[in-house]
Amino acid sequence: MSSSPMDSLNHPILEESFRIIDREVGDHNLNSSEYSIVRRIIHTTADFEFLDLFRHAHDGIEAGIGAIGAGKPIITDVTMVRQGIKTLVGKTFHNPLVAAVEQVTIAAENKTLTETGLLKCFSQYPGGIYVIGNAPTALLALCREITLSGMGPALVIGVPVGFVSVVESKGALNRLSVPQIWIEGRKGGSTVAAAIVNALIILAWEKLQASPR
To answer: For residue 92, what are the contacts with CB-CB under 8 A and spacing of at least 6?
Structure first.
């Protein structure tokens, strides 16, 4: 029997962590896909508040599962997010992985390096999966570019963390009619972004395995 790419994720410590999380969460109102994502975020952060902060709209979860399964490029704002998902991507759907911050060496005038790289990526991969876990300026730039171009990514995961422009950037995303997943308020971060993508990859892989051959 051939091994599954998921086998390496079934570490006894991970499974025990999930059992503890399930026990402490108890009853909840999330569907199975939502809970799969939130449980992985909680495992990454040890923060149960994400149960109440997780949001998605415009079929964000299903669109993400479909886009990952179709091999769409995944564009992350920073290297840390890419590093957090590259192992599982490499074992499953082999989506192209691009870290926006690595695509340029000089920031455009009045822009951050990540914002500049993100805009370059959007010009190359307008239909990609965009994952923002660190830079609210990049999320704001992405939202402006989507509005101006009229082109929509397959999915936007908007979970920057912090105090400056974070809530505003998530609000800008929420005003767009594109598939999206976000964390309400100031919380988020690169590890949260990676957890969301990894959970979507697992859901996409399970869907593939369950489909008729």
So the answer is: 5, 201, 204, 205
